[in-house]
Amino acid sequence: MDFNDTKEEAQFRQQAKQWLEENIVQFKQEFPFEVGDNVTDSQAAELAKAWQKRKFEGGWGCLTWPKAFGGREVSIMEATIFAQEEAKVMPLAGMYIITSGMAVPTIMTHGTEEQCKQLLPSIANGERLWCQLFSEPAAGSDLAGIKTRAVKDGDDWIINGQKVWTTLAHVSDWAILVVRTDPTVAKHKGLTYFVIDMKSPGVEVRPIKQASGESEFNEVFLTDVRIPDSQRLDAVGNGWRVAMTTLMNERVAVGGAFSDNVEEILEVARTTPLGQGRAIDDCGVRQSIADWYVKAAGLKNIGLRQLSTLSKGGVPGPEASVSKLVLGIGRQDLAAMSLDILDMAGVLAEDDAMGWGSHDFFRTIGNRLEGGTDEILRNIISERVLGLPAEIRVDKDVPFNQVPSGA
Amino acid sequence: MNFEFSDEQNMLREQARAYLAEHCSTEVVRKVLESDLSFDTKLWQGTVEMGWTSAATPEEYSGLGLSEMELCVIAEELGRSLAPIPFGSSIYLAAQAVLLAGSEAQKQQWLPRLSHGETIGTLALSEGAGSPSYDLLQAQVRNGKLTAKKTPVIDGMIADMAIVVARGDSGKPGLYLADLSAAGVERKLLSSIDESRPQAEIIFTDTAVELLGEGQALIEQLLDRAAILFAFEQLGGAQRALEMAVQYASERFAFGRQIGSFQAIKHKLADMFATLEMCKANCYYAAWALTTSSDDLPLAAATARVSASQAYYQCSKENIQVHGGSGFTWELDAHLYYRRAKVLSLVIGGERRWKERVVSQLETAEAGAPTAA
Lengths: 407, 373
Ligand SMILES: Cc1cc2nc3c(=O)[nH]c(=O)nc-3n(C[C@H](O)[C@H](O)[C@H](O)COP(=O)(O)OP(=O)(O)OC[C@H]3O[C@@H](n4cnc5c(N)ncnc54)[C@H](O)[C@@H]3O)c2cc1C
Description:
The structure holds two protein chains of two kinds. Chain A folds into three domains: 119 residues, Acyl-CoA dehydrogenase/oxidase, N-terminal domain (Butyryl-Coa Dehydrogenase, subunit A, domain 1, Orthogonal Bundle); 106 residues, Butyryl-CoA Dehydrogenase, subunit A, domain 2, CATH 2.40.110; 128 residues, Butyryl-CoA Dehydrogenase, subunit A, domain 3 (Up-down Bundle). In chain A, helix 1 runs parallel beside helix 3 and helix 7 crosses helix 10. Chain A is an alpha+beta fold. Chain A is 46% helix and 14% strand. Chain B contains eleven helices and nine strands. In chain B, helix 5 packs antiparallel against helix 6. By secondary structure, chain B is α+β, with helices and mostly antiparallel strands. Flavin-adenine dinucleotide binds next to strand 1, strand 3 and helix 12 of chain A.
């Protein structure tokens, strides 16, 4: 066991730091707005893409990728080291979670060589940002229940239906898409996976206002959208298997990227008066902060453990589901705690140093739903890790068009 | 970075697990719990012969000279098997105290005997209800004579020596070494929630003691180090309680189904697993901090300690819940873990104390370097 960098890792970290230091200054001169101060999503997307381009040109854009697609084939450990250093200076990594964390591994696993050659370079060089067209009004947790149809027409497919909760659809260039190609077979068997240009005729994106007041996600209406068969990933009817690759990577990507807000909660407690002193002097406040820190440290250490396993060639284990489960609930409670510390002033949502609490109070609602709800994660942990019986399925072997839908 | 135990350490674990499976069944635990016995002498002798008691003692004091990492591995297995022996008191507390603060002569005198189980040691810290506090510390040493009432003291009836926390002539709190066969020592067995790990009251009246070392920082250092080792015992016990629960959930039927097919049970078990995984990761990190005496040892120790206390409590109480009525019987082993979980979470100060330490360490860290997370 050793938590320090090895000599090679330390060297790599040094190189990463140096490149980041040199480039971030220049980058910020060219794009002189700070994230947070009222940057619109499209500005943030442009900024993230420009930064991706810069990284690509410097040889840091797609570190783990095969050399054939412009990568450097470095280890997961080294890629993580770069990501750690990058996160300290560039807070935009979140914009690329779906693109790099989900679309790319899916394309690499299930795409043909031709498809990889066609799709990956424009991701590497920051030209295209991707979104994920999976969930529908009647199918979220039960993703295999989607109804959006694809019907073959010559060498093309015609798509009709509606997707929902599509994060970043309004600023994305391309998307990964799951649709139903055969409603007469059991639900998992009639699905097919495509990639799609969001500018295709018939794609209409409508923002949804979230409970947080923001609009990160959208409804996406697909009306007679025509896409060529060459944009199908893997075989017709194999969509469920492909989607699983995406979802497995999603949990790793989402659970892995988090800020623990430990410094922020300490700051709130230190600057808020309480009784004769400050909130940080109050035993109850201190106990609550400790409760969160112990979780935050657990999450961090689980992440390191997972990384250590991956770097030895292991597969992502159940840790990803555990992390995502603990993180969502934990950060929601943390946000509520920060408002409680502020007491009556906790009702305010000013855009200042204390603003993160009121922002997270709402945003964390979404953390517990996106990428697998808390309940779905508990099902996964209990079934796949602990080996308990699977849920009773009334719809499993029934043709999809005969499954009761409650609608 | 490498987050795994070495092959040798894993081998040690397997060896320990196999040995304990044979020599420390829950029947052995119950024998101590249900009788006047204070510990299982045969098992204690066994751990000596296996080299566990001397594992982390340096070779010059006739130990094996392994690292604390090996001790963590052993602790986890002892916790898992609920070993009814004074291992923690004698090794994590007494031997560690001598190792940390003892003079060369004291080390020569005590470490070989502690490491070979010939002498049993313990720590006498608590003075009754409430968190131990330096401000309220009553125990006094005047001219080398200790006057104190320490209660409860784990393994206090069988210990040959105790490390006593007391205030010295200088007014500072310190660690004093007391030979419990000396004049002026009176002890009384106390009734407690887990009598497989008995507790005593010890009254010292003008008892001759030796100074080991002075200062709050030293005492805190000792407790930090012990906290990590106890956390591994807690981790082992919690893991076993979860396994028991999962097994029963798969075997027991109700309403024509395995109870493990009900989501309320599945989700409960998933939450136990999540807490346990967090605890394990925190313990591993702390083991590394302990072995390398890393700067964030105090924070890592307090974090592992709180994590482990929470995980063991959750896993042991929910294991009982999953077992239904049988979980509430004396006959079923589930209550053994529930008892031990509470004893271990209180033995060197409870959750409140350790949470306080987490935050005070965060404040110190913030004043200097950025936080670990
Ligand atoms: C912020 C945010 C961003 C998102 N981004 C995207 C995106 O980019 N692309 C995309 O495709 N989707 C996205 N989603 C959708 C997300 O994946 C779904 O919301 C999620 O899977 C839940 O589906 P649902 O909303 O239909 O709720 P439902 O599945 O209807 O769930 C309702 C409730 O029932 C519970 N439930 C359902 N099934 C079970 C079961 N078997 N056992 C126990 N409880 C169950 C759920 O846990 C939940 O509490 C996003 C969601 C959010 C909140």
